[in-house]
Design goal:
This protein is of the alpha/beta class. The protein is built from ten helices and 15 strands. The strands form five sheets. The protein has a five-stranded mixed beta sheet with strand order 4-3-1-7-12. It has a three-stranded mixed beta sheet with strand order 8-15-14. Strands 10-11-13 form a three-stranded mixed beta sheet, with no helix packed on it. α1 runs antiparallel to α6 (203-217), α5 crosses α8 and α9 crosses α10 (295-305). The chain is globular and about 55 Å long. It starts with a helix and ends with a helix. Pfam families: DUF6492 (PF20102). InterPro entries: DUF6492.
């Protein structure tokens, strides 16, 4: 669906004095038990939101409907993404992985499409502020989504100069590709990092960003983004806010509310130490889904130490 059509169909509006919040979680079948744990801890610890949306592909809808409830909705990606982008079992992985194909983009993997879902959902929900939370997150402390709003402005996570000196080459490519998408012709000397877990975006800003990308590229925003396989939705949004909008309607914050373990699996003792070393502002932990941590063991340990 073209973002202009989406904005007309789904009543785009700027956040009110008391904006409505939604939490958005892209997920897939291999993360189902992690997502269940997220929902359980969210229901115990998180306040200040109206609805939780879980975004999955068609074949996973029935499985995830087990998690649906009064404030939790499962959304099929077919309602979000253009019909010309479709998933298939990938024969190059012996059909263990999925690949999304079209004549308009490069072949995309699940992590690419999860990013597209996060952008697309803005055209299909009514809440003003969308808080993005991955399905491998668990909340250990009380958290109010209202922390993302201050004096009518929405918090934009930004680690100033966060890409300077880093050896993560992809991050620099993601930033450069974001600039091309957004029509930013002058290379910024300040290489900010906008990537973290547990962030908030304004829905009206997302819709405006999609229109801007389409104006620059002359094609559907998802087609423009998917033309490159190296992109970050967080960097695209961050550079749009800072360098196209001049920071309008946002304020910056650099604190991470979620402590993330990126690489190695943890023993019970290591996980306890990991939790004990959370910063005061951190309310959740994220154990990346590609790390082989048994989720049942993680659940039991969280219940014991939280």
């Amino acid at each position: 669906m073209n973002s202009r059509v989406a904005s007309e169909r789904f009543a785009e509006r700027a956040p009110s004095v008391q904006p409505r919040f939604a939490i958005v979680t892209p997920s897939y079948r291999r993360d189902f038990e992690r997502c269940r744990l997220l929902c359980e801890t969210m229901d115990r610890q998180v306040s200040g939101f109206d609805r939780h949306y879980i975004l999955v592909e068609k074949r996973d809808v029935t499985l995830f409907r087990q998690l649906a409830g009064a404030r939790r909705t499962i959304i099929d990606e077919r309602a979000l993404l253009p019909g010309w982008l479709r998933p298939f079992d990938d024969p190059t992985s012996l059909f263990r992985r999925r690949i999304w194909l079209s004549l308009r983009t490069k072949p995309l993997r699940g992590w690419h499409v999860q990013q597209l879902r996060r952008i697309a959902v803005a055209g299909h929900v009514p809440e003003d502020i969308l808080v993005y939370c991955d399905s491998d997150v668990a909340f250990l402390k009380p958290f109010d989504c209202g922390i993302f709003q201050r004096d009518g402005k929405t918090r934009l996570f930004r680690r100033d100069d966060g890409l300077e000196g880093r050896r993560l080459a992809d991050h620099h490519v993601w930033s450069d590709n974001a600039a091309k998408l957004l029509g930013i012709t002058e290379r910024s000397r300040l290489r900010h990092d906008y990537i973290t877990t547990l962030i908030a975006w304004r829905r009206d800003t997302q819709l405006a960003m999609c229109r801007h990308i389409e104006d620059v590229a002359g094609r559907h925003w998802a087609e423009a983004i998917g033309a490159e396989r190296k992109f970050s939705e967080c960097i695209i949004y961050g550079r749009y806010v800072d360098e196209v909008l001049g920071g309008a309607d946002h304020f910056h914050g650099s604190q991470d509310y979620c402590r993330v373990q990126w690489w190695d699996s943890l023993s019970d003792a290591e996980l306890e130490a990991f939790i004990a070393s959370m910063a005061p502002e951190q309310v959740a932990i994220g154990l990346q889904s590609f790390i082989s941590n048994d989720i049942g063991r993680v659940r039991r340990l969280i219940e014991r130490v939280a």
